[in-house]
Specification:
Largest sheet: 2 strands, antiparallel
Number of helices: 15
Strand order of the largest sheet: 1-2
Number of strands: 4
Strand content: under 5%
Shape: globular
Radius of gyration: 21 Å
Distance between the termini: 26 Å
């Protein structure tokens, strides 16, 4: 998720003549960083993204985030409805110099939808996303950019979270699923998805893009993804490929890719191949979404054994990715290979609302109600607070 965005972020930063920073995080935010933000690393390129993942992950494990964390994310939105990767001065109106992008906007829309109480912000974000949809039905990282599997898939998640039917989000008669199908490779090439066509229109299999596109082709997102019940069978070509067919083929590709070592592999220029923890976590989600928890067992167990140090080094988005993988794959995020991922994530930002606080508040109201009942001779039916805000 945050890791799988690296290609898009790199492309965008090259366009504006900057370089992406190394990702690192300490256990708690630095006082010099904005209040409410998760993580202590420079948020310039991933502030909104990692904040969104942190809130979504907490939602998936029934943790209510602090108001400060939610307010920080909501405050990043521009009047247009779009979100930048990071807005250093939320009090200043967004202008043409501030680059907004579809990934940050779609992730934020999913997060704000999950926490509730921000219906207007979610609607504005989705409206903006629809306004920059490409004629092939998909989205690029930046408005007008060539459609890619990752961006299109994260927008599908935003549409789903907002209550829209992704299949009915049409531009020029094309839906997001049409855009993903154009990026699906035949079985002779593994059945994977490409990130986007190269300059000559050629498609190349990409595990990162495939993990995202399997979930997108199934019409799901980070908030809504759940274990599926379709068998992860071998890739099959169809005369008329459907989104479900493409998702099954992509899942078969991922299953084969992780079969030997239990993980996906990345290769950085000038370095040897190495495990790709973030995309392996995304692959777990994709495999589970297609074929159920059993289909994701291998890479999930590998992550349990090997991901602790990676998550510690990479901070809130990494912990969030692992929580989403654990939750989708049927593992316990609070005891993931001996690590409490939920505790580690919440330690990187403002303290969430705790059960004890809720219980304390409820007890106070019970005592008040009981006192009133005794004094007035009438009974009260008092319900505990809803722990999740409603829109």
């Amino acid at each position: 998720m945050n890791v799988r965005r690296s290609a898009a972020v790199l492309a965008a930063t090259v366009a504006i003549g900057t370089a992406t920073p190394a990702v690192a995080a300490s256990p708690s935010p630095s006082p010099s960083l904005p209040s409410g933000l998760y993580g202590s690393s420079d948020p310039t390129y991933d502030g909104v993204w990692r904040q969104s993942l942190a809130l979504i992950a907490q939602y998936r494990v029934d943790v209510e985030p602090a108001d400060a964390a939610v307010d920080w994310l909501a405050g990043q939105q521009c009047e247009s409805g779009a979100f930048p990767a990071f807005r250093a001065n939320p009090a200043k109106a967004c202008d043409a110099k501030l680059m907004v992008d579809t990934n940050s906007t779609a992730a934020a829309a999913q997060a704000l939808s999950a926490v509730g109480g921000h219906g207007t912000a979610v609607t504005k974000a989705v409206t903006w996303l629809k306004s920059v949809q490409n004629k092939d039905g998909g989205w690029g990282y930046t408005p007008g950019g060539t459609s890619d599997a990752n961006s299109t898939s994260v927008v599908i998640g935003a549409l789903k979270a907002s209550g829209d039917d992704p299949a009915k989000a049409l531009k020029g008669g094309k839906s997001p699923h049409d855009a993903l199908l154009k990026l699906s490779l035949p079985c002779a090439d593994g059945g994977a998805f490409a990130y986007q066509p190269d300059k000559k229109g050629k498609l190349t299999a990409n595990a990162d893009a495939t993990a995202a596109a399997v979930v997108g082709a199934l019409g799901q997102g980070m908030v809504s993804v759940k274990a599926g019940d379709k068998k992860n069978a071998a890739c099959t070509d169809a005369a008329r490929l459907t989104p479900e067919d493409a998702a099954a083929n992509g899942s078969a590709y991922l299953a084969k890719a992780v079969a030997k070592d239990g993980h996906l592999t990345s290769a950085l220029p000038g370095s040897e191949n190495q495990p790709d923890y973030g995309n392996t976590a995304d692959a777990v989600v994709a495999l589970a979404a297609q074929g159920g928890t059993a289909a994701a067992t291998g890479p999930l167990r590998w992550l349990e054994r090997n991901s602790a140090k990676w998550a510690e080094q990479n901070g809130p988005a990494a912990y969030a990715q692992l929580i989403l993988a654990a939750e989708a794959g049927g593992a316990d995020p609070s005891d993931f290979g001996g690590t409490d991922l939920v505790k580690q994530l919440t330690a990187t930002g403002p303290a969430p609302v705790t059960a004890s606080q809720d219980d304390s508040d409820t007890s106070v109201w019970w005592m008040v109600g009981a006192g009133l009942a005794a004094g007035a001779g009438i009974g009260f039916l008092l319900s505990s607070r809803n722990k999740r805000k409603q829109p």
